[in-house]
Amino acid sequence: MEHQFSARYLLTLIIPLIFESLLNMMIGMADTIMVSNCGEAAVSAVSLVDSVSVLLIQLFTAFSTGGAVVVSQYLGRKDKASAILSVRNLIYISVLIALVLSLLMLLFRGFVIDIIFGDIAEDVRAYTDDYFVPILISYPALALFESLTAISRSEGKTGRTMGAAVLMNVVNISGNAILIYAFGLGPRGAGIASLSSRVLGCMMMFALMYRRSEELSMIGIAKGPISPAMIKRILRIAIPAGIESTVFHIGKILVQSLIATLGTASIAINAVVGNFNSYSNIPGNGINLALITIVGQCRGKNNFKDIYYYTRLMMLAVYLSTLLITIPLYILTPLVVHLYGLEDVSAALAVPIARGCLIACLVIWPFAFTMPNTLKAVGDVKFIMLSSFFSMWAFRVVLSYILVRLFHMGVEAIWYSMYADWTCRGTLYYLRYKSGKWKEKSII
Question: By the 8 A CB rule, do 411 and 262 touch?
């Protein structure tokens, strides 16, 4: 059978995205591991700030995803002029929103930390401010970087996004080594290194796309035009996706505040297990990004047959690649846990929780996080938003508080509740996909 994309195209699209996913995850992981020599308070502070920061970063990701869907569908339709117009308007709104958020959060960061996490240890509180300031300053550069990489993925040019991720990791890890170990700056040094890596990654992507040979060149980006109609198309994807991501991470932060009441050791254990979650999802996250480009271009041509075909193919790829990651990680879990510098008692508690996470990532995660990318790429984002809202609050938030407050369970209860959330949303997405109602959605 003939399909819209060749096997070679799929491999050249997906493989760089998997490596990019690995490299992006390593930035946060490097911050956690390299500040571990400063003690559990430093690890806890980085974890708490990252839980807030991810909420805001997801807003940038939502806008870049909205732009990527629109651009992919126009490219699938071979409408280059509209694709360029959508690119420019994506840049305008994403950078503007990042600037506003960065300024507001810089002004009210102490209030935000107090409201969300309440009574945390003084040393943890001091470290959070050290790390948070440079992270907040980096948001405009990060928003532009997210938009530029999303545009490149829509074009299928994932090699350059991987190259930018390599640069960012080199800068981040070397910066951490110098600022944390040589200058003793601790979490502040980790934040400055992350800021530097994001600025340089953004500059690299912009330079690569500011060429006349580029199909979607950045030349003339400052001249406009601003198109309300195009912004509306982007927002039709970005707003529900942003609400979904925001609700998801607000719930996550509420759970994080619950973990904070269990003590510094529980915060550190949760951070370590969260990294195991990230490890096992590295290939899946890369494939998920590719799926948006693939399905978006298929939808631009109204090629529903291939949407079904590529969704099945990518789900299979996620399962197989996740299996290859989780088996060795399961075996090496005790060794990996000890790399984080936890106390012996904390490490012993973290090992079974981390192994349970690996099993759940293999069995449940693909339905909860790969399947919705097909729905997102065709524009069925409201269903994703409503499903995520229900599942998050019913299971991850409410169930977590029940297990901890009423049944007096520890940090493991948070992860059991999360697996229930994954199961619920994965079931809802699968039923929606099988119903075919998403075929009625249209963006362009």
Answer: yes
Q: Which helix (H) or strand (E) is 135 found in, with range?
A: helix 122-137
Q: Is 154 exposed, middle or buried (0-12, 13-18, 19+ CB in 10 A)?
A: buried
Residues 205/207/213/219 CA torsion (nearest 10 deg)? 110
Of residues 217 and 121, more confidence is placed in 217
Residue pair 19/162 in contact (Cβ under 8 Å)? The answer is: yes
Q: How many CA atoms lie within 13 A of 235 on its CB side?
A: 10
Give the C-alpha separation, 362 to 359, whole Å.
Answer: 5
User: In which region does residue 224 sit, left (phi positive, over 0), alpha (psi from -120 to 50) or beta (all else)?
Assistant: left
Asked whether the whole model's pTM tops 0.90, one would answer: no
Q: How far is 390 from 403, CA to CA, in rounded Å?
A: 19
Q: Which of 52, 30, 85 is nearest to 340 (CA)?
A: 30
Listed range (41-55, 91-105, 338-352, 430-444) with the worst mean pLDDT: 41-55
Q: CA angle, corner 186, sides to 183 and 191, nearest 5? A: 105
Contact 212, 219 (CB under 8 A): yes
Plot region of 118 (φ>0 → left; ψ -120 to 50 → alpha; else → beta): left
pLDDT digits (tens, 9 = 90+) for 198-240: 999 999 999 999 988 888 888 888 887 889 989 898 888 888 8
Smallest CA-to-CA distance from 238 within 120, 68, 92 is with 68
Inter-CA distances, 64 with 23, 137, 302, 393, Å: 19, 19, 23, 26
For residue 323, the model assigns a pLDDT of 96
Half-sphere exposure of 293 (CA within 13 A, CB side): 22
49 in Cβ contact with 128 (< 8 Å): yes
The answer on pLDDT for 31 being more than 70 is no
